[in-house]
Design brief:
Elements (H helix, E strand, L loop, with lengths): L8 H5 L2 H31 L9 H49 L3 H21 L14 H4 L4 H18 L5 H26 L4 H26 L3 H22 L12 H17 L2
C-alpha cells in the first residue's frame, strides 16, 4: 500500500502513480483522439461547417454517469475497507490468543506450539487470499500443512486439537479451553469474511454496463463538441476519457484488496506485525 502525506498537494499531483495510469491509458487515448480528429475533419473540412447538435443529452447522461461512478468507487472502497477491518481484527485476536496461552500455562512446549501456529495461520491466510501469486517456499514446520486443500483451516484445526488435548489432560480448565476456542472461532470467522470479499466480485452485468456506458458516452462526445471547441475537441475529449476511465481503473484495483497492487492492503506487513507480537508475548520474561 502506498504511504503518503495527504497534505502535500504538489507531491500528490505529480506522483509517479498518476503517470503509470496515464501510460496504461495512453493507447486508448490515442484511439479516442484519432476518432475525435476524424469527426473534426469531416465536420470542419468536408461539411465546411460543424453540425449544430445540442449538448443537453450529454449533460443529462453525464449526470447519470457521475452517479454510477460514485456508486462504483464507493462499492469498491467498501470492499477495501472491509478487508482492512478484518485484518485489523485478526491482529487483535492473535494478540489476545497469545496472551491467554501465555497466562493459562502448560509449559514451554505449549507456548512454542502456539508461537509457531498463530503466525503460520496468518501467513497461510495471506497466501490463500492470493491464489494467482507464485507459491512461496514453505517453512519446515509448514510442510505438512502446505499439502492441505485449505491450509488456513488446517492450521486452525491443529490449534483447536491442541487446546482440546490440554483441556482433556487437565492442563487447562474447561473455562480456559472455551476462551481459547472463542479466539480460534473468531480467526476462522475472519477467514470466512475475507473469502467472501475475494470470491464475490462486482456483478458482471453491472461492470459490463458501466464500461459500455463510458464507451458510448465518450465516442459520441465529439459530435456535440466540435461546434463549440472545433479542433480543440481533440484534447478536451481525450481529457474527459482519461478522467472517466481512471476512476474505473482505480475502482477495479481496490475492489480486490488482497493482491499485490500498489493500493492493496499491506498483508506482508500485517503478517510481520502479528509474528513479532506473538513472539514477544509468548517469550516474555
Amino acid at each position: 500500500m502506498i504511504q503518503y502525506n495527504p497534505k502535500s498537494w504538489f507531491s500528490l499531483i505529480f506522483h509517479a502513480y498518476s503517470r503509470q495510469v496515464f501510460r496504461k491509458l495512453f493507447p486508448a487515448m490515442l484511439a479516442v483522439a484519432a476518432l475525435t480528429a476524424g469527426v473534426c475533419y469531416v465536420e470542419l473540412e468536408v461539411f465546411e461547417e460543424p453540425m449544430e447538435v445540442s449538448n443537453v443529452v450529454h449533460s443529462l447522461l453525464g449526470f447519470v454517469l457521475s452517479l454510477f461512478l460514485v456508486f462504483r468507487t464507493n462499492t469498491a472502497y467498501d470492499r477495501w475497507w472491509e478487508g482492512r477491518k478484518q485484518w485489523g481484527a485478526l491482529v487483535n485476536v492473535s494478540r489476545t490468543l497469545a496472551m491467554r496461552v501465555r497466562e493459562f500455562g502448560g509449559g514451554p512446549e505449549v507456548r512454542a506450539f502456539f508461537q509457531t501456529h498463530i503466525p503460520s495461520f496468518v501467513d497461510a491466510l495471506r497466501d490463500h487470499l492470493r491464489p494467482a501469486q507464485p507459491e512461496q517456499l514453505a517453512r519446515p514446520e509448514a510442510e505438512s500443512f502446505a499439502r492441505a486443500n485449505h491450509a488456513p483451516n488446517a492450521w486452525a484445526q491443529a490449534m483447536e486439537r491442541e487446546a482440546a488435548r490440554l483441556a482433556s489432560n487437565g492442563t487447562w480448565t474447561a473455562q480456559q479451553h472455551w476462551l481459547v476456542s472463542q479466539n480460534l472461532e473468531r480467526m476462522v470467522d475472519i477467514l470466512g469474511a475475507c473469502e467472501r470479499i475475494l470470491k464475490t466480485p462486482i456483478p458482471y452485468s453491472y461492470s459490463m454496463f458501466m464500461k459500455k456506458f463510458i464507451f458510448i458516452y465518450v465516442v459520441t462526445l465529439p459530435i456535440g463538441f466540435v461546434s463549440t471547441f472545433q479542433w480543440w475537441s481533440i484534447p478536451v475529449v481525450s481529457l474527459v476519457f482519461y478522467i472517466l476511465v481512471s476512476i474505473e481503473l482505480i475502482a477495479e484495483e481496490i475492489e480486490d484488496p488482497f493482491g499485490v497492487d500498489e493500493n492493496d492492503l499491506p498483508l506482508d506487513g500485517l503478517c510481520a506485525t502479528i509474528r513479532a507480537n506473538t513472539d514477544e508475548i509468548l517469550t516474555r520474561g
